Amino acid sequence: MTTIYKICERAAWRLAEQNGIYSGSDADAHDGFIHFSTAAQLTGTAVKHFARQRDLLLVAVSADALGAALKWEISRGGDLFPHLYAALPLAAVRWTHPLPDEVNGQRALPELAP
Fold first, then answer.
1. Averaged over 28-48, what is the pLDDT?
2. All domains of the chain, ordered by start, with CATH?
3. Beta carbons within 10 angstroms of residue 34's beta carbon
4. Which of 17, 18, 41, 46 is nearest to 108 (CA)?
5. Which of 26, 56, 58, 111 keeps 20 to 30 A from 12, CA to CA?
6. Is residue 91 over pLDDT 90?
7. SS (H, E, C) the chain
8. CA triplet 18, 12, 97: central angle to 5 degrees?
9. CA–CA separation, 8 and 74 (whole Å)
10. CA distance 4 to 6
């Protein structure tokens, strides 16, 4: 089973839990898909897109449960990134964990299987 990851604001995730789906962030809406990262890409994503942000969650998602709406596309550094061209059904979520806030500009991320 392939697991992909989404960093999101806790408040946005709580709204998704009420609605049963996650429609993505403002940046996702602007780009037309929900951005995800692999375990290997997660640190770069956190640094580039979530620096100095607080009250974040890490959401682990089963890529296999997303079907044809999940596309692997070239993005940052020529890497293939998972992009979901649909709302995220919460049934595909494996777990969520709070992300610690940055300390001295560094955010500790949990160890994840690639």
1. 94
2. 3-99 (3.20.170.20)
3. 26
4. 46
5. 111
6. yes
7. CCEEEEEEEHHHHHHHHHHCEECCCHHHHHHCCEECECCCCHHHHHHHHHCCCCCEEEEEEEHHHHHHHEEEEECHHHCEEEEECCCEEHHHEEEEEEECCCECCECCCCCCCC
8. 90
9. 22
10. 7
Residue 114 has pLDDT above 80, yes or no: no
Residue 23, pLDDT > 80, answer yes
Which pair of tokens denotes residue 68? 């044809």
Would you call 39 exposed, middle or buried from its count of C-beta atoms within 10 A (0-12, 13-18, 19+)?
Answer: middle
**With a threshold of 0.90, does the pTM exceed it?**
yes
pLDDT exceeds cutoff 90 at 57: yes
Q: Tell me the average pLDDT across 5-13.
A: 96
**Contact (Cβ atoms closer than 8 angstroms) between residue 3 and residue 63:** yes
Say what the pLDDT of residue 75 is.
Answer: 86
Residues 82 and 34: their CA atoms lie apart, in Å, by: 9
